[in-house]
Amino acid sequence: MDDNPSTTFGLQVLTGRDFDLQQFATDSTAAILNETALSTMGFDNPIGEVIKDNGREWHVIGVVKDFVFTSPFRKTEPIVLFGPKQKWAFSVVYIKLNPSQSTQEHLATLSSLTNKYNPEYPFEYHFADLDYQSKFEDMRTTLLITTVFTSVAIFIACLGLLGLATHMAEARVKEIGIRKVMGGSALSITRLLSYASIKPIMIAVIIFTPVGWMSINWWLQSFCLPCVFRYLGFCNCGLEYSCYCTTNY
């Protein structure tokens, strides 16, 4: 690694500091650990500790927060960022582009520099954000399919609910008229008609909210970074559906 990879990659330094070859020439043999590597090595105070790799000693200067390096669905692996003394470290160059200039201008400049200093190899590049997004392509496809079929199912359920509400209102039209004549309020009549539909909905919400919440949290555990789903989302769905039932009357 060269100077300031945390700035280039957007890493969060938890302990110690980043590579700085301008001020510390010894950073050429320095190393930075991620949280998983620190836990694996068992260092209580990692700064200044020495690790060995391929016969060379590296001194630890910092610890960064765990980040997604390969797949977001795999458990985070121990990662060690080595200084520039690691000879194979410069097979790839990571560059953070200046947003004040266009991407095409940056690519033209980088292509010119590559042809000047490394003319035997073609200029090949990848955008880190696009590579990162490609890790979730399968998830996007699943999301699209699930959204389409869920929307169709909800639409059909709402049509059925509307038909049921209309049928119940027509079947009890005489009862509603008698209650109005006897002084019944609109609120009491609405409560009478909607109770039969809202009661099973609320029972279903109470029973299946814990099941759905546990299922979603189980699925979120497949990601290496912790994700938490709040159960209030289920409660909001049940409340909105109950309001829909009431307005149908």
Architecture blueprint of SSEs:
Layout: H1 5-9, E1 13-16, E2 30-34, H2 35-41, E3 50-53, E4 56-64, E5 80-82, H3 103-117, H4 128-134, H5 137-171, H6 173-181, H7 186-220, H8 232-248
Parallel strand pairs: 2-4
Antiparallel strand pairs: 1-4, 2-5, 3-4
Characterization of this structure:
The chain is of the alpha+beta class and 249 residues long. It folds into two domains: 5-131, no CATH class; 136-248, no CATH class. 52% of the residues lie in helices and 10% in strands. It contains eight helices and five strands; from the N terminus they run αββαβββαααααα. Strands 1, 2, 3, 4 and 5 form a five-stranded mixed β-sheet that branches. Helix 7 (186-220) packs antiparallel against helix 8. The relative contact order is 0.09.
Overall number of strands: 5
Portion in strands: 5-15%
Largest sheet entry: 5 strands, mixed
How many helices? The count is 8
Uncertain runs are: none
Mean pLDDT across the residues is: 79
Helix content: 40-55%
Quickly list its features:
249 residues; alpha+beta; 2 domains; 5-stranded mixed β-sheet; 5 strands; elongated
In short:
The chain is an alpha+beta fold.
